[in-house]
Amino acid sequence: MDLSLSTETVGDRTVVRVGGEIDVYTAPKLREQLVELVNDGNYHLVVDMEGVDFLDSTGLGVLVGGLKRVRAHEGSLRLVCNQERILKIFRITGLTKVFPIHTSVEDAVQATD
Amino acid sequence: MATVELLFSALPEHVRTARLVAAAVARRAGVDEAVLDEVRLAVGEACSRAVGLHNSQGISSPVRVVLIEDEKKFSIEVADDAPRPAAVAAALARAAAGSAKGSGPGGVAEDIGVDSDDDMGLAVISGLVDDVEVTADESGGLIRMSWPTASTTALP
């Protein structure tokens, strides 16, 4: 399955809905999307990963890159994820301490700290 | 001992194929369903790493994946042809061995000082797979991973 991406603006947040597999082949597409959003002045991003079937370290690298970009503009990058197999990858790499991970898009959009 | 061997050109689009084949063979070998996600992820990481190494060093030979079904375990070997200086090879082996034995609360990323996608891939493999061995020398690298099969876990 390929990667699917869609974006939606909710207040001052931009929600990026990701579906499919994020791996070495598809991650560049997600990177482009995040770079484009930041270049267009969207500094508060919520990446909804509920539709993601597979995530590897290349995908993690892209998310870390996105976080770095938004932080340069005092922005934020929040994740929405409830899938244990995806959360596990964040845990074993210690990235749960780096990304705020929320259980719903509504929750992530309202979060302030 | 039964084996399935897969050779693929070092292209990112073929890594998914390697994941699917590895998961299918692992399932057939009797690896627990709950562990198949880990097999899929670990082999994907190893193959992504090999593809990256071949591309960055302009190596045209294919990446090799060998799936070995033993009586008690299922093993995967992912081999690349990217030569490493001896010092780098030793550091990689130490990092993999150290984090596989158990990582601190900071996770393996912190333990081995992740600073690139390549290291992150190894960190994920080490965090996922208990039995993993990373070796590399002047002729290339090899990641060997194994998982118990159902026949062994079912024993008292």
TrEMBL record, chain A:
Q: Which Pfam families match?
A: STAS
Record domain STAS: where = 3-112
A GO molecular-function annotation: anti-sigma factor antagonist activity
Which keywords belong to this entry?
A: Phosphoprotein
User: Is Phosphoprotein a UniProt keyword of this protein?
Assistant: yes
Cross-referenced Gene3D superfamilies = STAS domain (3.30.750.24)
**SUPFAM superfamilies in the record:** SpoIIaa-like
KW Phosphoprotein (keyword) present: yes
Main role?
A: Positive regulator of sigma-B activity. Non-phosphorylated RsbV binds to RsbW, preventing its association with sigma-B. When phosphorylated, releases RsbW, which is then free to complex with and inactivate sigma-B.
Family indicated by similarity: Belongs to the anti-sigma-factor antagonist family.
**Identification of the protein by name:** Anti-sigma factor antagonist
Question: Which species?
Answer: Streptomyces triculaminicus
What lineage is on file? Bacteria, Bacillati, Actinomycetota, Actinomycetes, Kitasatosporales
TrEMBL record, chain B:
For the keyword Kinase, the answer is yes
Instruction: Classify the source by domain of life.
Output: Bacteria
What does the record list as coiled-coil region(s)?
none
The Gene Ontology terms for molecular function here are: protein serine/threonine kinase activity
Could you tell me which residue ranges the Histidine kinase/HSP90-like ATPase domain spans?
8-147
What does the UniProt keyword field contain?
Kinase, Serine/threonine-protein kinase, Transferase
Q: What is this protein called?
A: Anti-sigma regulatory factor
